[in-house]
Amino acid sequence: xxxxSFVCSCAxxxxxxxxxxxxxxxxxxxxxxxxxxxxxGLPAMEQVIDEYDLDQVIVTCPERRVQRKxxxxxxxxxxxxxAVSFVDQREGAGWVHDEAGATAKTARMVNARQAGLEAxxxxxxxxxAAGDSVxxxxxxxxxxxxxxxxxxxxxxxxxxxxxxxADLDGVTIERGxxxxxxxRFGEFEVRLESRVTEDCISCMKCVREGPDGAVTRYPxxxxxxxxxxxxxxxxxxxxxxxxxxxxxLEFDQIVYPAANRRTRGGRVGFYTAPIDAATISAVRKHLGxxxxxxxxxxxxxxxxxxxxxxxxxxxxxxxxxxxAVERAxxxxxxxxEEACQNCGACTSACPTGAxxxxxxxNERVAREIEALLRPTDEEGGWLLNRSGSDVESPIVAFVCxxxxxxxxxxxxxxxxxxxxxxxxxxxxxxxxxxxDTVGEAHAMHALACGADGxxxxxxxxxxxxxxxxxxxxLVDRLNRAGRDLELGERFAFFAPDPDEPGAxxxxxxxxxxxxxxxxxxxxxxxxxxxxDDGRERPPFDSHGWTLESVRAIxxxxxPDREVIRGLKDFGRMAVGDGCTLxxxxxxxxxxxxxxxxxxxxxxEFNHERCVNCGTCEEGCVEDVIAMRxxxxxxxxxxxxxxxxxxxxxxxxxxxxxxxxxxxxxFASEGTARKIQSEVGDAVAGLVxxxxxxxFEYCGDCRAQLLYDRGNG
Length: 712
Hints:
Blueprint: E1 3-8, H1 18-24, E2 30-34, H2 42-52, E3 56-60, H3 64-76, E4 84-87, H4 90-94, H5 99-118, E5 125-126, E6 133-137, H6 140-146, E7 151-155, E8 172-174, E9 177-182, E10 188-196, H7 205-209, E11 215-217, E12 220-222, E13 240-251, E14 253-255, H8 261-264, E15 270-271, H9 277-285, E16 292-293, E17 296-298, E18 306-307, E19 310-311, H10 315-319, E20 325-329, E21 332-335, H11 345-349, E22 355-357, H12 362-373, E23 395-400, H13 403-416, E24 428-432, H14 440-448, E25 453-457, H15 472-484, E26 491-494, H16 501-514, H17 542-554, E27 563-564, E28 571-575, H18 584-588, E29 594-597, E30 602-605, H19 615-619, E31 625-629, E32 631-632, E33 649-653, E34 656-658, E35 665-668, H20 669-683, H21 699-710
Parallel strand pairs: 1-2, 1-3, 3-4, 6-7, 6-14, 7-8, 14-15, 23-24, 23-25, 25-26
Antiparallel strand pairs: 5-16, 9-10, 10-13, 11-12, 17-22, 18-19, 20-21, 27-32, 28-31, 29-30, 30-33, 34-35
Helix pairs in contact: 1-5, 5-12, 14-17
């Protein structure tokens, strides 16, 4: 696989040093740059793809219309469209950071994208036929409602969707006003007219210079009544055409609330107001087919949900906001994948890796974090030069791909258009489906790789999945763990409001300023995604991945505390005096973290394996087991080198009863006494000639005594 990267400054509207950005990109066969890649740079791009025989291309371009253009260029040179990947160097970097920060961040994001693509999961989908394209005119709510089932294009019809409450992440947005609709079901043609051509790159110059209210930002378009003037000459791509240009788009179905009945006629697949649930259902019914991704990898044989009618771990059921997981039985959970909304809540909560998000997978997230924080040369690299002016305090930001991502993009557009002064530290983004995707394993891995801080950037009160402050509890736990590790508080949750950039800028800036440089060296740690505890486990399970990260952190810190609190996937076992050494807990434990030694009457516990599911505590017949969360460093095998079997520690020392006849230990004293107290009266005098009661004999000798009595 030959990979090339292309960096663009978007007509010099982005504060990016193109040469320095190229030098910071690693792991590719060629890194090229252009001031305006989608125009003057296209011939050079074609030449580079051909000369280096590239199979995969990473381009810095956030504009979807331009992305399609670049995909066509790459495809013409033999690169599959799916092998063209894009990075936002503009709204998320060049428009909101200074040149050094934007340059460093751009290079890092390209490196992270390359690392992530290498770990990308193969897609698994439900097959779907063609014929699912739907045009929705000026109705963002309907567009969002159909986006999961159809290829939706939202036609602006003169409107601006910067402040749309609906989730338009999966929707293509087209500028222009509808002039005419022709055709029939499966062959509709929509003719649009606009004052901005397809050459527009959304650089915001016309928005900045144009008359107030005459130019929309998203999508960029000009009101037909806008006056001519010198401001129309500012476009770097000559995309302004005040006389208007027309184009025709094709769709299978049309949702056009403002159209009249005459326009619609009796055509099937053409819908006008009122648009309600029945309309949405009708559109879906007439789709030629859909393609729904399989979001989860399930490996239920490692699930800790319980056993033998004992409820165990219930994390996924409690975490899922869409009722896609249920307790099918008291000791089993069931997943309804058709209801899954790809938020990742169950996967970040699951300690054993029984459920894992396919994309982004934990491994992909890990590789992107490592690439974002990796120095670029043996001396530490300019990207991590904290004494200079670029990324002085590297902060890994897990950014929700829904409203939070949109808000950050809007901040960039506001800054570029001169509508707001938006400058904040160059946080290093890892795009996730939802902040619910993020768990303690992801955050601890970022610290293990040398991040000064970890920001969880989500939707806050408007979260489509989990409601207000979905990660407040996680942040509190992680900061407790950070304090116990002598790292201090390095985690925070942010909910950017697109209408209040100042609040976000102040909050993230304060967070960055308050962070001390991490004692953990950057660029040294590369995760394997697990631990070697003698058990086979799914890759990058939360428990194993977290423990691996903590061990990497402990190479650089020396905490005073023995127990690291706040890490919920680790359990500490305490056993009371009433233990009779029955095999219940060891049989129930889903991770084999408990074992019985009958020769020594000892119950042993493996802290390294325990995921704190609570099954042993719930199933204990004597009710003497108590579990507490937290990682106890003294119980890890590397800290018990003087023990014969350092991974195991005795949590209960009993006494074995020896057989009066053969001398063989056969049961713990506690078990024997308990059985004797319950049924002793019923069998008293059963073998009059025995030395002591029948409970003082092993099973073999007890049987022999009864046989001798019966034949005496």
